[in-house]
Amino acid sequence: MADFRHAAQLALEAGFDGIELHGANGYLVDQFLQDGSNKRTDAYGGSVENRARFLLEALGELIPVFGADRVGLRLSPEGQWGDVHDSNPKATFGWLAERLCSLGLAYLHIIDPRIKGDSTLHEGREAVAAAFMRKHYAGTIIAAGGFNREEAMQIVDEGNADFVAFARWFSSNPDLPERLRHGWPLTPYKREAFWGGDEHGYSDFMPYQPLAALPEHDGAPFAVCGAECVQCGLRGPAHSMPCTQPEGSRACLVS
Fold it and tell me: What is the pLDDT of residues 149-188, one digit of tens each?
């Protein structure tokens, strides 16, 4: 447990505003919490109170360093990672959420089970995890996992989350908050660039530019290839960012 406090202290000295304990997605804290992976027979296994002991003790190391209002916790109710799953997730995470109410944490970061890592498991499925946790937790909830603009607005409007986190879409939309605010189209991300390669298809995406904001262009948009642009999803004359790249250029924005 001393390692958790040491890590928090280093983060504080480095100027971090806060710290999040990763208790989701099959990592160590999650392995203790869920009975599919936790087969211990000591004080850290068996009942939900025992299985949650490791998580609560870890929070107990972080809170004295930053203060509870600067410590968040990430959880993935009903998430499954190999043997990391729970036979009764509603009982486990419902009990935990109620236990956490008294700590005054900055937030709970709730990952919906419709995603697994960077993959969506259940296309079109309604987000359920944050709504369930809201029944047991009165503090701030950040929902995450496969949200689009409309779903994010809906879950906040319904009161089941206070914020919505996005991840994959930021890799291809550096101006994602502005695109969501104005309803601008999103640039599709390149999944094959998530875990390897260089900056191409990962950090070389450009902010969205509305057609009216663009300077005059001598050449016709997409004069070379006429393909769909990953910046705005449009083709030909409707394309919002005139293509000036030579044919075959690595800088071409066409997927």
Answer: 999 999 999 999 999 999 889 989 999 999 999 999 999 8
- Report the CATH number of the 2-165 domain: 3.20.20.70
Q: Which residues pair with 254 in a beta bridge?
A: 229
How far is Cα 55 from Cα 150, in angstroms, rounded to an integer?
33
Nearest residue to 169 (alpha-carbon basis) of 147, 136, 150, 184: 147
72 closest CA partner among 115, 131, 133, 19: 19
Instruction: Find the Cα–Cα–Cα–Cα dihedral 198, 116, 74, 37, rounded to 10°.
Output: -120
| Residue 90 CB neighbour total at 10 angstroms | 13
The residues assigned a catalytic role are 27
For residues 209 and 240, the answer to whether their CB atoms sit within 8 Å is: yes
Q: Using an 8 Å Cβ cutoff, are 136 and 98 in contact?
A: yes
Report the pLDDT value the prediction gives residue 123, as an integer from 0 to 100: 56
Helix then strand count (H, E) for the chain reads: 9, 7
- For residue 32, give every residue at least 6 positions away whose Cβ sits within 8 Å of its Cβ, in sequence order, or none: 38, 44, 51, 52, 53, 54, 55
| CA-based torsion, 60, 61, 66, 72: positive or negative | negative
The residue whose two tokens read 């971090």 is: 16
Q: For the chain, which ranges sit under pLDDT 50?
A: 122, 214-226, 235-255
Kindly list the domain boundaries of the chain, sorted by start residue: 2-165
- What is the predicted pLDDT for the residue at 246? 43
